[in-house]
Amino acid sequence: MKVFKHINKKWERIAMLLLAPLFLTPMLSACDDDDEIQKESIIVADKDVSDTPFDKWLNTYVVEPYNLKIDWRWTYNDIRLGYYTVPASYESAVILAHVLKHCCLEAYDEAAGISFTRHNFPKQIVFVGTWEYNNNGTKVLGTAEGGKKIWLAGVNHIKENINLGAGQLNSQYLKTMHHEFTHILNQNSPYQVAFKELTKTTYVADSWSKDPYNVDYRKRGYITSYAQHSPGEDFAELYSVYVTSSAETWQSYMDEAVVTTVDENGIKTTDYTYQNILQKKIDMVRAYMEKSWGIDMDVMREVLARRLNDVVNGNVDLTDLTIVKD
């Protein structure tokens, strides 16, 4: 290895000597003594980058009523390091902002009151153009920080996911928002300690996506594979999955928690242990949301389903930036 490095440095010096004239020639020819250097830069930057029709729309319908800032531009200080990401496009940011307004902000206004939304919804949402991929093959859809900020990834894929229907839009964006919002609510008002005791010995941290934890998780008392990460993720997954699933879909998940075995004599045994644990968990989540925040999860589910259908059925203009003056 040392020899290799030495040889590289030697040839690097030779290459630089050979290429130097190539670099110097255009530099010298571009600076003729007779040329007059322009006093003004030929690069003209936007004097006001916050004056697009989208920015004005955001200010009117998001910033002013909710004290919420959507950072859709690429801002280095707001981007999470350690991932290869790209900025959100203007068109995609406009569409996703409309989706969030209709299916999150106004949904909570309807189900819990605008005062709840204004006081508790995060104050900053950062848009990231692509997904954040991990080395274990998973991808980050969103992240909450400090009870005030949410990163939302995959913004540039919003149109294709809307076209794929309500389930896809839920799984890639809306469930993520409700999950991360749950973390923020939990930071402001902790959930019951008893919740952590129900499956306290079977959380697996970052191994949740690996075999054998990525299958049959409902038969171990978890609504999703990711719920096995920790009690906090378990709690947030339960709420976000419940309010973004139909009653029939939720019941099918509960049915999967039933463990059925057949012995060598053909005798069938049915074990409802983990279905009962899942039921206890969702009952605790429901009680927390009602007592701490005044949210009826069944009302929230109905509101979200209706508003989601509005979006996928084209009943909401996701590109309209018209500002209606009172």
Explain what the structure shows.
This protein has helices at residues 2-29, 53-66, 90-112, 114-120, 158-163, 166-188, 193-197, 231-243, 247-256, 273-293, 297-312; strands at 69-71, 124-127, 132-133, 139-140, 142-145, 149-152, 259-262, 268-271. It is α/β, with parallel strands linked by helices and 326 residues long. The strands form 3 sheets. A 4-stranded mixed β-sheet has the order 1-2-6-5. Strands 3-4 form a two-stranded antiparallel sheet. A hairpin with a 3-residue loop joins strand 5 (142-145) and strand 6. Helix 3 (90-112) packs across helix 4, helix 3 runs antiparallel to helix 11 and helix 8 (231-243) crosses helix 10 (273-293). It is globular, with a radius of gyration of 26 Å. The protein starts with a helix and ends in a 14-residue tail after the last helix. The model is unreliable at 1-48 (pLDDT under 50).
Q: Would you list the SSEs in sequence order as H and E?
A: HHEHHEEEEEHHHHHEEHH
Give the mean pLDDT.
84
* Cα Rg: 26 Å
**Strands of the biggest beta sheet: in what spatial order?**
1-2-6-5
Instruction: Give the DSSP E fraction (strand runs of 2 or more residues).
Output: 5-15%
Model regions low in confidence, pLDDT < 50 over at least 5 residues = 1-48
Shape: globular
Instruction: Output the structural class.
Output: alpha/beta
C-alpha termini separation: 73 Å
